[in-house]
Amino acid sequence: MKEKVWKNCPSCGAHDSMNYRSNLRERIEGKGYKPFSVHGLDGYICSKCHDGILTIKAENRLRVEIMENRAHQDSARIPANALIPVEVIAKSLRVPRQTVHWMMRAGRMPFVYVGKQRFPFNDKSKKIVVKGKSYRISDLAVSR
């Protein structure tokens, strides 16, 4: 996908006000999680209203960093009986195990760390989309 070069600000409407900047920092404060910062992002910042738009690559990196940080913090609070084996998720979704691992690595499926391994967990509030269909993780875990 080709990256858009922003010139006009979509927030305030100023013309030729968007400037490309690299090495941006985003502070993340999620409800129930300790705040943290992600460094080294890039995007376009408006010189008038100072609103910004991250590039696609930076958005993807930000999503991965948020999921990684949440996984480390959730590892201490998620009970072992909420973990779901990767094989069960793969079978329920009718996809290979590698796809489930990719979804966790790309930040598209919630997971926790047990040692150095990633495990999806039963989260009633999360939905995932596979091949155009939406699934609740709690529904996938029932088919164990």
The largest sheet is: 3 strands, antiparallel
Question: Given the C-alpha coordinates, what overall shape results?
Answer: elongated
Encode the helix/strand succession as letters: EEEHHHEEEEH
What is the count of DSSP helices, taking H or I runs of 4+ residues? 4
Cα separation of the termini = 38 Å
Class by SSE composition: alpha+beta
Q: Order of strands across the biggest sheet?
A: 1-2-3
Description:
The chain is an alpha+beta fold. The protein contains four helices and seven strands; from the N terminus they run E-E-E-H-H-H-E-E-E-E-H. The protein is 29% helix and 28% strand. The strands form three sheets. The protein has a three-stranded antiparallel sheet with strand order 1-2-3. Strand 1 (18-28) and strand 2 form a beta hairpin. The chain starts with 17 loop residues before the first strand and ends with a helix.
What's the SSE blueprint?
Elements: E1 18-28, E2 36-46, E3 52-54, H1 56-74, H2 86-93, H3 97-105, E4 111-114, E5 117-120, E6 127-130, E7 133-136, H4 137-142
Antiparallel strand pairs: 1-2, 2-3, 4-5, 6-7
Helix pairs in contact: 2-3
